[in-house]
Write a structure and sequence with these properties.
Blueprint lengths: L13 E8 L2 E7 L4 E2 L6 E2 L2 E14 L2 E13 L9 E3 L14 H14 L1 H10 L6 H16 L6 E10 L3 E8 L4 E6 L4 H10 L5 E4 L3 H10 L4 E4 L1 H16 L19 H8 L1 H29 L6 H7 L3 H10 L1
Parallel strand pairs: 2-6, 8-11, 11-12
Antiparallel strand pairs: 1-2, 3-4, 5-6, 6-7, 8-9, 9-10
Length: 330
Amino acid sequence: MQTKLDWAPGPNVRVLGAERDGDRWMISAVGPEGGSCPGCGKPSKRRHSRYFRHLQDLPVQGAAVTVKLRMNRWRCTNGDCERRTFVDQPSESVLPFARQTGRIAELVHLFGHGVGGKPGERLLKRLGMAVSDDTILRQLKRRVAARCGAATVRVAGIDDWSWRKGCSYGTIVVDLERRVVVDVLADRSASGTADWLRAHPEVEIISRDRSGLYAQGGREGAPQARQIADRFHLFQNLRESIEAQLSRVDRPTGRALLPLSKGEDDIAATIVSSSRGQSDVAEHRKLTRQARRRSRQAILITSEPCVTLEPLFAILRMRRGLVRAASENG
């Protein structure tokens, strides 16, 4: 057995030895020889019992390392203290009930945050640190809960989250002021969003997409909050408005864009059902028909001096089928 002092997981841990056990290293270590009662703060060296903890540590040359740490349970010598026994933790690198050292837990968190659960599991196993994807996700949630537990969310960004693209979706909630993910909901529904907002009455502003589900969830769960559209969906609205306006102009390079008549969402259906919305849609379709008629007339005028249709393809830059159909119908 060879002593390796540099393999100690913490400053108050004394390494007794290191030996090779198959494809891994087993490090024998012992905790501090005394402690202070967390209840009254009185130091004590009266040992009550001993027990062992097996901690996963950083690998050595690709081989896994396990620290067999012997811990001591002490008796409190203060008669007025409510505690009779206690265990003094050696350092912050060895947390209570943990099965990993602090330095490997930090690596697990970084890998999970960078690549995710399953990819992180494969990479860590390749590096000699066998950790399941569930452990990686629990480590991420533990860090987020410790960091965001006492923080309040004033501006919440709500959007859909793809658990599996095309199959199942959830809801992600982001604190837009601190730019951190607050929570991930299991489903994408108005009731789930409303329940989360009721549990966080401090929300003042809700930034969401144009989905009617999140609008309804915001009205039910946080009626006092102001709902706004985020920047991405504002630019999307601008792009669709520009496309709608351009579809009313003569388009010699193709057909005019027609508005959707089926499959519209709840918000669009509400707008169309109103009298003003119906007049706007009717005017848009009228202008579209006029633009299409002018485009067809331009084809007929251009085709009069042409003996064949081949020059029209280059002049109008249209598909052959469209030019041929327009000339035959004219």
